[in-house]
Amino acid sequence: MDFTNKSVLVLGGSRGIGAAIVRRFAADGAKVSFTYSGSPEAAQLVAEETGSTAFSTDSADRDAVIGRVRDSGPLDVLVVNSGIAIFGDAREQDPDAVDRMFRINIHAPYHASVEAARQMPPGGRIVVIGSVNGDRMPMPGLASYALTKSALQGMARGLARDFGPGGITINIVQPGPIDTEANPADGPMKDLMHSFMAIKRHGRPEEVAAMVAWLAGPEAGFVTGAMHTIDGAFGA
Ligand code: NDP
């Protein structure tokens, strides 16, 4: 895919799936910037490797997120990848931790997408990383996380209506288990997760980045308000 001269911002690009997305767009010629919060050293390494620009921006801070998007100028592509999961029985979870996750996983994607669409030219693309857990939550302890990923579905359906007339698309990519620090392929949950799947392995961050690149490219202009699952049939 050729993204030469395209301006791309990735929220949450220092590690895991986000870093693979930064690498993909940089390799395809884009001018890439990305945000990070807790991992400045990893961010610096990704920036040096790819020739991209890293900005410290906490996705839990709504005004910082809006400011980062606004200050990026007209974007051709916005990818919202930053996301966290908190585990545990809902009755025992700290409500402040739950609300912080809601700010990162729901509020940031919404406000970033709206702010980006204010400046985006026709042909602009917004891609948000959801989860197959937005469709299917077969394990206990992840109710609040699943809620955040389901919320993105309604967001995409609605914002597609607002942005479509301006030639801007918005889509959700819904990974299943992907090998990152958040969900290592050799982690304690691997056998349980693989038992739900037709392809019994973790996906690779690069596989998710490839789907993001296609959705951000010229062939996907008729694709909007939709969920795109990449999960080895975890949710099938
Ligand atoms: P990682 O924990 O490996 O990486 C998360 C990335 O998001 C890091 O770059 C991190 O940056 C950034 N991030 C997290 N919190 C913030 C914050 N407050 N502000 C700015 N950046 C932040 O996770 P994954 O790569 O596995 O997950 C990426 C996305 O994919 C998430 O939305 C996740 O929900 C989703 N997903 C992942 C799956 C998986 O199996 N791995 C499956 C389904 C969905 P930093 O460390 O600098 O804060």
UniProtKB/TrEMBL annotation:
InterPro entries referenced in this protein's UniProt entry, alphabetically: KR_dom (IPR057326), NAD(P)-bd_dom_sf (IPR036291), SDR_DHRS6-like (IPR051122), SDR_fam (IPR002347)
Per the record's keyword annotation, is Oxidoreductase included, yes or no? yes
State whether keyword Transcription regulation applies. Answer: no
The family classification in the record reads:
Belongs to the short-chain dehydrogenases/reductases (SDR) family.
Known NCBIfam families for this protein? PRK12742.1
- A Pfam family: adh_short_C2
Q: Which residue ranges does the record assign to the Ketoreductase domain? A: 6-181
What name does this protein carry?
SDR family oxidoreductase
Q: Which GO terms describe its molecular function?
A: oxidoreductase activity
List the keywords (alphabetical).
Answer: Oxidoreductase
